[in-house]
Amino acid sequence: MWLQLAWSLVLASSAASSASRRCEDSLATPLPYSSFSSSSVYGRGYGAGYAKLNRKQGAGGWSPLDTDRYQWLQVDLGSRKQVVAIATQGRYSSSDWTSKYRLLYSDAQRNWRPYLQDGNIWTFEGNRNSEDVVRQELQHAILTRYIRFIPLEWNKDGRIGVRLELYGCSYWADVISFDGTGIISYRFRSKKMKIVKDVITLKFRTTVRDGVLLHGEGQQGDYISLELSRARLLLSINLGSSEYGSIQGHTTVASGSLLDDDHWHSVVIERYRRNINFTLDHHTKHFRTNGEFDHLDLDYEVKSRNLTFSCVESSSSPVFFNSTSFLQLPGQSNGDTLSVSLSFRTWNPSGLLMFTELADGWVELGLVEGKVTVYMNVTQKKNTRIEISSGSSLNDGQWHSVHLNALENHAMLTVDGDEASTVRTAIPIQVQTGGVYFFGGGSFLAASSRSLQRSFQGCMQMIHIDDHLVDLRAVEQGLIGTFENVTLDMCAIIDRCVPNHCEHGGECSQTWDTFSCNCSGTGYTGATCHSPLYQQSCEEYELQGQSSGAYWIDPDGSGPIAPFRVHCDMTEETVWTTLRNNLSPQTPVSSHDQYGKAVLQITYNATDEQVSKQTSQSCSFVSSRYSSRLITANEKHFYWGGSGPGIQKCACGIENNCTDPGHFCNCDAELKEDAGLLLYKDHLPVSQVVVGDTSKSGSEAKLTVGPLKCRGDRSYWNAASFTSPASSVHFQSFPGETSTDISFYFKTSSPHGVFLESVGGSSRLHIQIRVVLLTLEVGGELVQLSVHSPRPLNDDEWHRVQVEKNIKEAVLVLDGRHREVRAARTQAHAKLELYTDLFLGASSGQRSFLGCMRALRINGVIFDLERRAAETPGVSPGCQGHCSRYEMHCRNGGKCVEQYNGYSCDCSLTAYDGPFCTDDVGGYFETGTLVRYDFLPDMGAPVPDEMKGSPGWGLSGEANLTREELVFSFSTHSAPSILVYISSRTQDSLAVVLRQNGTLQIRYSLGGLMEPFTIDIDRRNMANGQPHSVNITRSFREIRLQLDHYPLSTYTLPETSDVHFNLVKSIFLGKVFETGQIDPVLIERYNTPGFVGCLSRVQFNSVAPLKAALRSGMTAPVSTHGILVPSNCGASPLTIPPMSSAHDPWHSETAGSVFPFKEEKKRADGVNRNSAIIGGIISVVIFSVLCILVFVVRHTFRHKGSYHTNEAKGAESADCADAAIIVNDPAFTETIDESKREWFI
Length: 1241
Fold this sequence. Notes:
Domain EGF-like: 493-530, 880-918
Family: Belongs to the neurexin family.
Subcellular location: Cell junction, Paranodal septate junction; Membrane
Strand content: 35-45%
Oligomer: single chain
GO cellular component, one term: paranodal junction
Radius of gyration: 46 Å
Protein name: Contactin associated protein 2b
Shape: extended
């Protein structure tokens, strides 16, 4: 093994000199032609030496003879260099260029190592033409002498072609070779070192997986040690332990894997007191040492040794197999002994290692579920099958050796050189070899059923056939054997679990291609155990409809604090979270120290971090005590529950009700108790209670420290309102992580807008509502996710968005139910680097999100929206929408819709119009006019979207109603007539009619009765030309009637009546025109000549048939026969309060009373009578003035000599003269409106 001591004085001066200039030298251009070599050359002018950037000599670059993926171009840099970048061009003025490539590097032209980035064999993007220069920066510099350029893709219309340049600088360091017994001591200037800060750096390479690299120790037990164990690097350090072992300072941290690959690995150890950064190959682990000591006390000598390493050069190079590779090698034919041995390393549990045919059968050596298994099939003995296996869990990525030996009549299998565990078995015949051996796979796997194995993925070396080591260089030169898709002299195995991408303690397992995480028991979920499994607070559980009980909560989401169990109390309006402690109620205080004080430690069913996270809310303690002091968060506080800091009194002393007025605490007088709440959040939770004066004879103390109770969750409701399409909230960029999650709630009435946007150096994040669209771009990779919701997202209701981007996938979740997942590319294991600022809303000229956003959390960190919104124009703290402040203005069931600068009222599902849904929608019915609305039968056909939002949509024709509400207004002089009739596909019906005397009748026919159930309002003539409002509401058998401003009346259907209004079919207004069985009384008495007058506000449940008929822009199953003219019928919103039952002429207890406006029922004190006289005089005066004005106007126009005609121009096509006037005069609507009113003076 080679050990490079980077902390030597020589290296320190070298590093200082190299740091004085940039590492940007051109490394390839100064080299001679002979420093370039290649797999082949297309022609004389296409040699490797012409492959220098911007050169035109020869054919203008290198091109190989064959255009396939086995070609390479090699550059010998002359000595070890530090390479930081590569630039490429195509061959000059040609159609030959390379579009994708890889890099291999080596120090000795053997055992090549692929360039890795983000845990993958990296593929570089090359050229798209022959002249442009494409430069690629290496994520981490490589130290090497030889570099190979491996083309992977090229111009389809040309050949492989390249010119290149390598950038970097010279590198020099002392190198020491260890033979397994050597040791080097480094002596400090003083004989004893007591160090607070250390920096140790070194580089090493080896082919052995176990050994000590560095060790130093002191006389007090301090030590530091760096060693390899199973090809992993272990750092052990002890800054000191106590004499009796109560404080253990030993700390061990492991890093890396597969470090026995004979490649250089760099180590940096930085320590400041107990804080250590342990870096291996650019991956850093941060940790704190155990114990309480800060100094590393060492003797004057630090040793660097190797007890097992050996520098013997291996005579065999590794072979790399992928899923389509095989290596075919020759052996002895017709031999009586079969001997094959090899070493392998892989992550896959199964794969073919070797296959060979015998003269009478075949032999297969493979890996099955982590065991080496041999199958021998002897055809001479009627397909006798022999199976032996050995070893376990051999797919651990480590090198394992296998030796199979079959001779005479037995076979032996040895794994990892353990002769004691060699497996032997008898063979029924003498072995006779076939002479051809396949390793890793072969075409016979697909063409024959003899092998059930899959191809091997991994590395092999030290392949022996017939006890002879195979010369792989001869295989590469084509002198012996053959191969396909095999990479010789390289082992490109990757440990995908180092570093471990499974977060929060998730267990990582891997195959050759990928890794997976087992998140069981962690409290997290997802591909990398990143997303929290539990809600952040009891408040969130309550809003999901959960009830009181024990729950797991995770206040910081995907942050480092683990979830913990609490009790949630949701019985009150405020949600309470309770954390219990270890102290039983009324705990006796007995043991004390020499000062007479007893110390009681308080612990909780959560860690200090978890408790502190919870106390960020409003919290309190219930406590009672003897005389004592509290210790909270390592701070002492001398007060008790019910009091406060510095007061020096208990609750009874503050309220002046202590049992002994001479003391400020009951316990000071040894009477009763002192109890109260601890409400100062910064002083919670209580971790220790110290009780004094416990040594008094005859005294006794009992202590109760109640649970920690916290209410609400302010972070969950931390919100901001965006009121302008150009508004945005600015935050500093959040740190990039391999896994990044974002979650927030929003509500809006706008159909589109940008939620969040941030653009980094190589990453872009963009989330917007358009459905919900997430756009992520990481390292040039564009990932676009969209989630569709079954209901519109601009419904002004709260919706939740959750986004996660990790190295395996990108996930977008909407409302916890709708999910879109996109697998990441194999190479896309980069962090989300967001170096610029983060904007909520749009910062790039797009339309911003309009509405409310709350509970924004990124990587477990809550963003304070309210504080930042208070500083930002166009954004306001909290979610105080216009609707929450002005919802009272949307009347009659209208829905308030948020607008970015106001609000609007959606009246589509009401019988009203206008900005506040207060304008009546009505129509004047001439003789014979009717409106018919038909409910669509539920036949499974889709309903057009434009109909669903119309006032005529809202009820399926197949509905069987047990509740309905019918509301309308009318005015008429005509009786009898039908106002509203609702039919069904059965014989059920509901009718509201005016009888001959103008009184109102309601007729319910729901089945079960011989005649309809009728409700007669006999006490008033409703056909008096005045507007009347009717509200009929039924729930099962109960019918409620509200007529005008009179008190509510209640009626009950008979017990024999059905309660279901089955299969509602149609609504008729003004007249009935329908076939089938209809109530004959309706047709005979009320249907002819039909209703004449005004109807308005007609609504049956959510259906407004008259509004649908009068609004031409609405699509609804409604038809009109006859003349229907829009009119509000003189109706207006009611402002008269309901009459009391004492004055109600319809009330059952006052049936004999007369109307209250009659003169004889007025007050007898004369006040009302005098007012009536005065009012009458004023009325007479006003009437006389009006008569004079009318006479003057008529006299004036009579003498003007002008001639006016009201003859309608459309009389020819009209049914009558009145109809012609209606058709031709647009203002006639208002004429009717005014003509139907009665004026009282």
